[in-house]
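DM from R.C. (forwarded with permission)

"hey, sorry to bug you on a friday — could you get me a structure for this? deadline for the figure draft is monday and I only need the backbone to look sensible"
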Amino acid sequence: MSLPEIPGATIAQRYIIGNFIAENDAPSTCGLDIFLATRDLLSEDEASNQRHLTDWWNNHTYLHNKNSGRPIDKPAERLAFGLDGTLKARAALRAHYGDETYAVRRDAWGCSDATLKPGNDPEGVSAKVLAKADAIVKRDDADKTNPFNPANKIADRAAEIGVYILKHGSKAAQEQCKRFSVDIAGRPVVYKRA
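My reply, with the result:
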């Protein structure tokens, strides 16, 4: 364990605070805040130190990991750290959360203050998953007008298939037939086992 850099703190105080941060999975950036709140209270008595540190910890529930009493603002985080993140949204989120929680959430998204590179939602889906979902929806929307799709109820299917073959060619029609398991007339193909 590395000792947190706390200006004005003794080695013993840095050691006590560093252990407390590690035990409670607290952000390492809160070491100075703990020191400023408890610098006159920390002593060689472990029980007393634990009591003072626990009191400070209980008053700062927003620093607790997932069981925080403070709700996470997912829409604001998506605006700040998502694909369309802006500096203005990040500044608003920092003002809303405070520096400590902002740093924890920024790190959870895998972002940096140095760049506007988007991160991945730690509790949700990534940009790649959303892009794949959009591609599936677009493909399904295109299938709604495909005359070879058996789910498509076109009044005059034969005429629509003829237009498709003239427009795209017989090779494309064969690929569509294979894709939807239909014959060239759009009838379902049932394969019999020998």
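R.C.: lifesaver. The chain has nine helices and no strands.
me: no worries. The longest helix spans residues 127-143.
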